[in-house]
Amino acid sequence: MTSHVTDARSGGRRIGGIGVAREESWAAPDTRRWLQLGLAFIWLLDAVLQFQSFMFSKGFSQMLAGTAPGNPAVIAGPINWSARLIDQHTVVANGAFAVIQLLLGLGIAWRPAVRLALGASIGWAIAVWWLGEGLGGILNGAGSPANGAPGAVIIYALLAVLLWPGKRDRPAPFVAGRFTGAAVARLLWLVLWGSLAYMALLPATRAAKALSGMVAGMASGEPGWLAGLDNHLAAFLAQRGPAAAVVLAVVLAFIAVGVYLPRPAARALIAVAIVTSAAIWIAEGLGGILTGGGTDPNSGLLLALLALTYWPLANSRPAATRSESA
Amino acid sequence: MAGQSWLADTFAGIMIITAAYCVSRLVVARRQHRPTDFRVDGVHVLMGVAMAGMLVPRLRVFWAGGWEIVFGVATAWFAWLTIREWMASREPRTRSAVSHPRAHHLQHVLGCGAMLYMFLAVTSARAASGGSGMSGMAGSAARFPTLALILALGLFGYVVWTADRLPGLATVAAFAARPTSAPVPAGAASYPSTATQASAMAPREDGQARTDGQAPDDSRLRAGQAPATPMSPRLAACCEIAMGVTMGYMLILML
Question: Which residues, at least 6 apart from B177, have a Cβ–Cβ distance to it below 8 Å?
Answer without folding.
Answer: B188
